[in-house]
Amino acid sequence: SLVNKAAAAAATAAAQPLVDFTPGSDMLDPVLQAARARLAAEKAAEALTRAVHECTDLARLDAAISAAQEAEVEEAGLLREAHAARARLARAQSAGQGLEEALARLEAARTSDDRDVLAVLGSAAC
User: Fold this and answer.
1) How large is the average pLDDT for residues 16-42?
2) Assuming Cys at both sites, which of 27, 32, 48, 55 could form a disulfide with 64, CB separation 3.0 to 4.6 Å?
3) CB 44 within 8 A of CB 72
């Protein structure tokens, strides 16, 4: 009957999607890659911020700067601050090494009399 044929056609049409669209990985890959890149940049920026504020280890600060540049961190102010902190830390380490070398030269230049006097003073203080 004509009603049965129409009902069957309507059921078939209702079972099919209105638009033949199945999202594939080719459409999602760029979105996922962009999200991963943003996440990597955010993590690198956080690590760089921590390294700048702690500012005690030159190697760690250098690694954080490199990671931020690789992740294309867009916060130019943060990178400038990191490079300035790196320069200060490098100068401080260089000055510290100079002081250690000067102290070593002073200790080597002491005479045995100086050592004896220091030993006497040290034992008298106890």
Assistant:
1) 75
2) 48
3) no
